Each structure stands twice: as C-alpha cells, then as structure tokens.
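Build the 3D complex.
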Amino acid sequence: MATRVGFVIAGVRLLRRSFVAVFSTAGDMFHNSSQKKYWIFKSEDEIEHMRNKANQKFRNKALESGKPGVSESVFLQRHEEDVLFRHYERRLLEFCNAFKPTMPKSVVGTALMYFRRFYLSNSVMEYHPRIIMLTCTYLACKVDEFNVSCTQFVGNLVQETPAGQERVLEQILEYELLLIQQLNFHLVVHNPYRPMEGLLIDLKTRYPTLESPESLRKTADDFLTQAAMTDAGLLFSPSQIALTAILNSASRAGLNMESYLTQCLGLKEEKETLSKMYDSMRRMKTLLKKYEPPKLQEVNISKQRLERIHAEFASSSNKRKRGYEEDGHVAKEPRLVEEEWTDEDLI
Amino acid sequence: MDEQGCPRCKTTKYRNPSLKLMVNVCGHTLCENCVEMLFVRGSGNCVQCDTPLRKSNFRVQLFEDPTVDKEVEIRKKVLKIYNKRDFDFPSLREYNDYLEQVEDLVYNLTNNVDVENTKLRMEQYQRENRDVIQRNKAKLTREQEELEELLLLEQQSNEQRRLEVLQEEQRQLQAKRKNKQALLDELVRCTCCMAVCMCNDKSSDAISELHYDRCSMSDRQTVSLQPVTKIEDVLYHYRPLQVETYGPPVPELEQLGRLGYLNHVRAAVTQDTAGGYTSALACYRAIQDAFSGLFPLKG
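Done.
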C-alpha cells in the first residue's frame, strides 16, 4: 500500500476539483519514484518491442505444450492484440466512470496505467483482459486509498446476479497477486492531474499575460483523458503531459504561451532544453492523433479468436491462487462447469 | 516449606511458613503460638505423650525431624559429662570403646530404652571421674577462647585494610582536583595558542587527566611521560540535502503566501486548520508535482 505520512482528510476539497489532497514528505515525488526509474521508456519502439516479446513468449509456450493441431495461424497478431487491448481499455474507462460511489480521477488513471503496464510483458492470449481490467481497478482503489469493499466493488457489475458477482470477485482475488507481481511491486503511479492543477495555479500567479487560465481547464482535461489511453504515460513524465495539455488547449484557443516557458520556467537561456521539450510535446500530440477507437467488427472477430485460444490453451491445473506458484508459470484453469460471464455483463 | 504441621492447630503451619516450630524434651513439636497457648493455662503437658513440660524446655527447632532435635539436646547433655578427649586414653582402641559407650547412652535416652539404668550409669560415671571432667572442661574453655581471639584479630585486620583503601581513594581524588586547579591557573596565565588548542580539542580534558594520573603513579612505577598526541579532526558542517528534481525550482513553503500563490487556492476551513493544515501545504504539493520531472533528461 502507498504509505503516506500525515494528513488524509477524505473530503478536503482543496482546489475546486474534488481530489483528496495528501500531504507527504519530499521523498515520494515523481523525480525519485519507481515510475521514473523503471516505467518510463525512451521511445515507442522500445515499448513495441516489449509487446512483441510478450506475444512471442506466449506463442512459444503454447507450441511447447505439445497440443495437437496447433499452428501459428491460431495465434493473434500484434495488431489484433492491440485492437482488443484498446477495446478493453475503453470498457475499463466506462466501468470506472459508471462506478458508484464516484471514483476519483487519480484512481482511474492508476487503473489504466496498471492495465497498460501489465500488458507490456504479458499477452492478452494468456490472461484474458476482461478479468485483468477488473483486477486493475480493484487494486487501484486499494492503492489510492479509495475505500471500497469488495462486495461493493462487484456490486457495480449491474448485469450480474449476486452469484455471478461472487464468481467474478473470486476471479479478481485470484489474479490480484499475479498483477502485483507483474507490476514488479511498483504500485505508486503518478498521474498528471495534480501537476495540471499546480500549473494552473502557477499560471494564475506568475503569468498575467494569460487572462483566464480556467478557460483552458476543460480542454486540458480532455487532453489528459485521451493521453491516458495512449502510451504517453510510459514515455513522458506526468508534469510534461500536463504542460502539453495546457499548451495544447492554449494554442487551440489561439493564445501563445511561449513566454511562460522562457520567462516563468526560466528556460530563456536553455535553448537545448526548450527544443527538447517542444519535441516531446510534438511526439505526444502525434501519439494522441494516432489513437483510433477500435472498430466493432474488428473487435468481434478478434474476440472470437481470443476465446478460442483461451479455451484451447487453458491448462487443466487444479484451482490454485495465481501468482503463488514458484516456477512462474501461471495457468488459467478451465471453467467448464459454470457459465462464463461475458463482456456484456459489465455495463 | 514444611510438610509437617503443628499437631495442635494443624492448619497454621501450611498457611504461615514463617511460623517457627518448637521442640521439647519429649521430642514433639509445637508451633510458637501453641506453646504460648499451652502455658497460658499454667504448666502444660505434651499433647502426644502427656509428659509434664516447662516453657523453658522448648527450643527452636533446627531440624525437620523433631527426633533429631531431641537427640541433639540429649547429646549435648551427655557430652557435658562424658568429655574425655583422645589424649586421655592410652590407646586408640580404648578411645573408640569409650566413644561407643557414649553413643549407647545417647541412643538409649533418645529412644526411651532403659532410661533408668542409663541414668544410673551416667551418674556413676560422673561421680567417678569428677576431677577429670573438671580438668577437661577448663581446657575446653581455654581452647574456645583462643579461637575467639584469632577470629577477632582477623576481623580487625580486615577492617584496617578497608580503611586504608578508602584513604588511598581520598588521596587520589584530592590530587586530581589539585591538578585540575593547577591546569586552570596555568591557562589563565598563559594566553598563547595552547589555550585555543585546549578549547578546540574537546578531549583535551580527558587526555590531561590521564596525563596527570600517570604522573601521580610515577612514585610507584616509572612511566615515560611522553607528550600525548592530539588528534585533530575536521569540524562537521551541516549541508542540506540536495535533490535533483529535473524541473524548475519550487518556491519555499513559507514564501507561497507572499508570492501570491495562495490567492488561487481554496482557503482552509477552520475545521481543517485545527489539525495543523494550511492551504499553503496543498498548494506546495501541487506546485512540487507540477515542476517535478518537467525538464527532459540531459543527453
């Protein structure tokens, strides 16, 4: 759990947004966090390489298992995996937005980041995203100190009967430890929401050129939400994402904020740093532009193939808690008796 | 502590281990309380054997078994009479025979065997050997006195030694104090770098004390009085922790109000301030987060 010294008052409405302001020592800022050390990558290629590796790993494992009638064509291609990933990511967002009680934005951000990180080194063919997505949300609630009991949590799956909710809960609890392991136990995620608040405060205080920074808030928020659905969180620091969001919304409104960077942030002389920052911002905007919401047809086709793979390669290990096995090989056991819950049961 | 109980009040023994048992000549025990009770109503009889008793006949029990105590008493009385020593007899055999006689008597009296005859024999012996008995008694007392004298002498010498040690300690303390005073006087007079050195070097006091101690010991031993080497060390300077934040500098918490940041932050409600919260704290946190990691890494 994220241990923070001092002061959590649930319901301290500090800024106009409703987020819990937690005061802590300078020890757990982004600059010396595990996120910066281990989960910020140099380029999109590196990330893609990791995903390819995960895909390949599953293929090798499935082929080695020696099941008859298995060929390369059964497996999902990278782009199909991607489609499924994006689809389930949207389901995750919808689930969180419909959550009762209202889930704070930081929890949603954390859950999305967990989801993304998990599938950097694992394949959707091995662990079905519909369970992982709920496990991510559950874990994010715990880590971010958004206190929801497990029954309350599964109570948000409105399409399920109480018995069905129980089954889902069991699955979540099974996968929880595996998720934590695959995250390398790095549970603290720094989201760009608080940096954005900080930048707005700074703008209001030190940058009178911009008349009403508040008007930028809405577009910047949308930018952040969109950015959470891309790999931006794995490439740039949250404050950079926040700055890009604000600059982007300013340029949309036709305002020039370059003097903020040069004067207030003291980058007048630092030409190199300035150019690097503009570069990162451009890259980020490209990432956002590249994002396409998944098409329903593609999704359905890929889903069918996914279900087939899962049914095929589910090993017949007896029910054991995931992640408690020594050899690292964790298998999903077949649920042949009970009826599987489907995506439609979510919302 | 004591398994046997007082035969009269039976229970008291178990409840009160500090209560003493008394034994009388017939060899039966009574606890202190019962002894008192018995003699309140005039002279009493033993509970078990009904022999008439006197209060003075009761002695504090030393042994767990009252018969042992009884025997000890009898033995003491017998040996008062039969007090011949080994050099009184011409041969070892006769001394052993004599001892066996004594044991017979003691046994008879303890176990109430042939008491009359034994007593007669004792009296007869007493009459026959009256002067021998007297002589031996005198010798015994003399020996005891000598022993006591030796003990006394030993005690006295112990006491003397202790006093000497105390005096020695006192002398040392005084010497130390004198030397410290001398050192201070010297410092007052001599205002050269020596004083500065002494002041800086905190351990100098200890060093100089040791030094002087060695001097005072020199009358008993010869110790080379070399100058003690001083260890000079660099003074510690506090340097605050520097953390790389990869971003623009964050204003200090205390400056936030002055710089005008707090105007754009929701003011703290009185309930919040009760716990020590100020709006500056949350503002500081937000600014920190906004600036941390803002600049790209070098290279």
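The radius of gyration of chain A is 22 Å.
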